[in-house]
Every structure is written in structure tokens, then in C-alpha cells.
Amino acid sequence: MARLTLYGDPKSGNCLKVKWVLDLLSRPYDWVDVDVTRGEARTPRMLAINPAGQVPCVVLEDGRALAQSGAILLHLAEDSHLIPDDAYDRARMLEWMFWEQYSHEPYIAVRRFQRAFLNRPDAEIDPKLYERGSAALERLEAALQAGPYLVGDRISLADIALVAYTRVADEGGFDLAKYPCVAAWIVKVEADLGIGS
């Protein structure tokens, strides 16, 4: 019987989000390592699967491919407890997921990648990455003062999408000790997912 295949780089929070949802929902899959730092996402084989040359990408059991972490998460979690039943709460979940890709990941993940994987010193990294990443963490801190999760009283795709890079923000030079609600939320979401820092 065919199994879902997840193509991903274990250094990528976007790829780990998909892995965590598959694991949490006990859905069987095969993981294929794709090292983006070595250009493996842009090989002819990978471009045939995802012409955008990016991971994560999944090939579903029926052979259809799907890319972009948010789209994959929504597809995999359909009809699960990870998507709120209430229409407004679902919209709030999506609001956080869209915000993550536009106002969080481009700063926190990019700064982390430049420091941790390209070994660039802070002086060579655009200071706006730190400024905007800090602003994103401040927004999360304010939101999490209202409750343990971003939407409602249980984990949703919003938490999974945002914890992926937030939990390793220190690798980008962000001091998570400045954000106690964020730090507590990371511990809670990691426990829900069965992962550790």
C-alpha cells in the first residue's frame, strides 16, 4: 500500500511542522532528507515533484504532490482537533499562520539561518532582521498573556506553525528569556507534540 512521502530538511522549521503534524495524527509516512544548503531541493528529480524547488513537499498516497507548509498542514489536519470547529476561531488560526509566514519566519528563521548555518557574524547581518524578529516575539508575548495557546484552549495549527522557528530563535540571537509567556508556551507546545528543545 502506498504511503505518504515527506521531502524535507531537518534543519527547516517549515519541514518539521509537517513532520510534527503527521506524528501527532499518527499518520504513516516516509521521510526523504533534502539538504537545501547543498541545493538538493533544486535537482531535476525534486523540481519534477515541486517546480518551486522548495521543501517541504509531500507526495500523497495517491501520487499527487503538495507544497508550502501551510497548505500541507491544512490538508493533513482537515477534520482533526488541530483545526478549531468554530468558524471565527478557524479564521484566527489562519490569521496567525499567514502572519507567521509574512511577519515572523522571514526575520527569525532567516536570521537564524544566517547565523547558525552560514556562520555570518551579527555585524554582517541586516539589522532589520533582528528588529522585526524582536517585534514578532513581542507580539507573541502579548497574545500569549491571554491564554496558553494562540487560539482557544488547546493546541491548533497556529501553535505548531509558530513554535517551529520560535523555539530555536535563540540560534538567531534572540533572547527568549525576555519573553516569559512565549518561553512557557514553547514548553507546553513541545510537550503536546512530544518533542524536546
UniProtKB/TrEMBL annotation:
<feature type="domain" description="GST N-terminal">
    <location>
        <begin position="2"/>
        <end position="84"/>
    </location>
</feature>
<feature type="domain" description="GST C-terminal">
    <location>
        <begin position="86"/>
        <end position="197"/>
    </location>
</feature>
<dbReference type="InterPro" id="IPR036282">
    <property type="entry name" value="Glutathione-S-Trfase_C_sf"/>
</dbReference>
<dbReference type="InterPro" id="IPR004046">
    <property type="entry name" value="GST_C"/>
</dbReference>
<dbReference type="InterPro" id="IPR010987">
    <property type="entry name" value="Glutathione-S-Trfase_C-like"/>
</dbReference>
<protein>
    <submittedName>
        <fullName>Glutathione S-transferase family protein</fullName>
    </submittedName>
</protein>
<dbReference type="Pfam" id="PF00043">
    <property type="entry name" value="GST_C"/>
</dbReference>
<dbReference type="InterPro" id="IPR040079">
    <property type="entry name" value="Glutathione_S-Trfase"/>
</dbReference>
<dbReference type="InterPro" id="IPR036249">
    <property type="entry name" value="Thioredoxin-like_sf"/>
</dbReference>
<dbReference type="Pfam" id="PF13409">
    <property type="entry name" value="GST_N_2"/>
</dbReference>
<dbReference type="InterPro" id="IPR004045">
    <property type="entry name" value="Glutathione_S-Trfase_N"/>
</dbReference>
